Amino acid sequence: MTDVQAPVAGRLLPLSAVPDQVFAAEMVGSGVAIEPAVPDDGADAVVVSPVAGTVLKLHPHAAIVLTDRGVGVLVHVGIDTVGLEGEGFTRLVAEKAKVEAGDPLIAFSPAGIRDRGLSAICPVVVMDSQPGSIANLEERDVAAGDWIFTV
């Protein structure tokens, strides 16, 4: 069993709340979403690794961390943010780096994404998992590093 932690502070929501059919229909895998909070001090939000493992893929707007047990967890920062071509994002780690749960991966501005008319919601998906396999979600506010589910 692998505990998955919240990669960013905000409101924990079902994946069906994501305004993108690929994520909402769990085509990539089952998971949850977090509507990120804007930090009180106006600083960028920081996405941290939801699990310990190796950074398999790192884009300005997304990361996949592969656990030692072979579980891949995707964190996607916002919807349609690939079109920003990295603007407003800072990578804080390199691909293939070994990370612990809670290690910083990406910094970004939720307000900056929203100011461009995009959703800042962050899907957290267990890659290639069966739809509905992450269930019984309790909507709540979470801090980065809080437990969100076990896989």
Automatic annotation (TrEMBL):
Coiled coil: none
Name of the molecule in the record: PTS glucose transporter subunit IIA
PANTHER family associated with the record: PTS SYSTEM GLUCOSE-SPECIFIC EIIA COMPONENT (PTHR45008)
The organism's place on the tree of life at top rank: Bacteria
One Pfam short name: PTS_EIIA_1
Residue ranges of every copy of the PTS EIIA type-1 domain listed in the record: 20-128
GO cellular component: a single term: cytoplasm
The keyword ATP-binding is annotated on this UniProt entry: no
Cellular localisation: Cytoplasm
Record GO terms (molecular function): kinase activity
Native source organism of the sequence: Tsukamurella asaccharolytica
A Gene Ontology biological process term: phosphoenolpyruvate-dependent sugar phosphotransferase system
Keyword tags: Kinase, Phosphotransferase system, Sugar transport, Transferase, Transport
